[in-house]
Design brief:
The protein contains 14 helices and 17 strands. With about 450 residues, it is α/β, with parallel strands linked by helices. It is globular, with a radius of gyration of 21 Å. It binds zinc ion. Zinc ion binds next to loops.
Length: about 450
Amino acid sequence: MKPSASALWIKRPLAVFSREDAAGGLVVRDGRIVELVPSGAQPKAPEVQVFDAAQLVVLPGLVNIHHHFYQTLTRACPPALDKPLFSWLQALYPIWARLTPEAHRLATRLVLAELALSGATTVSDHHYVFPAGLEDAIDIQVEEAERLGLRAVFTRGSMSLSEEDGGLPPRQVVQAEDVIMADCERLVARYHQAGEGAMIQIALAPCSPFSVTRDLMCASAEMAAQHDLRLHTHLAETQDEEAWCQEAFGCSPVDYLEDAGWLSGRSWLAHGIWFSDAEVARLGRHQVGVCHCPSSNMILASGICRVPELEVAGIKVGLGVDGSASNDGSDMLGEVRQAFLLQRLTHGADKVSHRDALRWATEGSAACLGRPELGRIAVGAQADLALCRLDELRHFGAGDPLAALVLCGGAKADRVMVQGRWIVEDGALPGLDLDRLRHEHQAAARALLT
Ligand SMILES: [Zn+2]
């Protein structure tokens, strides 16, 4: 990986997604954006190297805030097809229980490449399956992210409530609470970087109300406050979950969350579909974040997140592809298009624009992670950028390049920069043998299914 030269002018792109005028491009130095160049102007910075972006649309690097990397091994999985969430999970748990460290490493490597090539610069994974032998699942993910140069927030997921105790997952995929909390402590001490520009962070992520104990939710909230960490979980994804919470706890998922000490700005929730109006207002008052996952919600027929209404209430909204067993791809630019289409259909052409969808995938996601230095093209922000070429047949004839990126679909990142370093060049990840990875990943996926 080559660091950028001391100052690099990304010169006069086809279009830039920024609030201020940057039509002349931007200047990057020491891992940050140091100057926006207005239309027709030259950089003020002396002795800049030049990268000609005349054929490229420049976006802030996309920030994917909900995923389950290992699920690339069970995409379009026959036993799970055509099922809603609970029976889909019950079909997959026994397969996931056989996950090995090597398969998990290949899944992580493949999905990081897939995300980077679709414009992501920051990725978050929610890994909650720790069968015997896979205790180092997060350590493996950190190694792979560092190898490819992506910025990552790995959430230490967990399941502690098995079928025998009234939960949904089978016994072989749950762990004891003390084991989970000790591993959270270990991972935070070893990998979590605090502060602006952090490349690797750890967050705490009990899986869902129906797979963890209330005690684990409370202990996670306490530990997050103690170490200033983010909290993540699945919430209000389906009506089944609402019914399950009423039956098990005698309250709604949001009441349960509040009771466990999770209503705060440090929490972000995957899905956030089935909230009452009063709950939306309550979540907004506490500045909770929600990750919208449109493809997964459509495939599992879970429901539609009311994104514009959540934002009006003060809830931070970001975007995630969700796991590859319910998407079944990890195409972040594709997910921007899905969010745009679904939200526009639901709320109207005058309420949702392509710019909104791009904003959710950048600034919105970064806000959910508590990272204002990411997801923006602005002076002082981290130099995390996705540069996309509009040269597929489907892009020809497009008038507005930024709108074309979302409306025409099918765009890929030609160049991706993280903290001022190119991690994708000419549509490839330097040093990664994709053919070999394809072969090894496919063999691992087949082995898991048999
Ligand atoms: Zn998920």
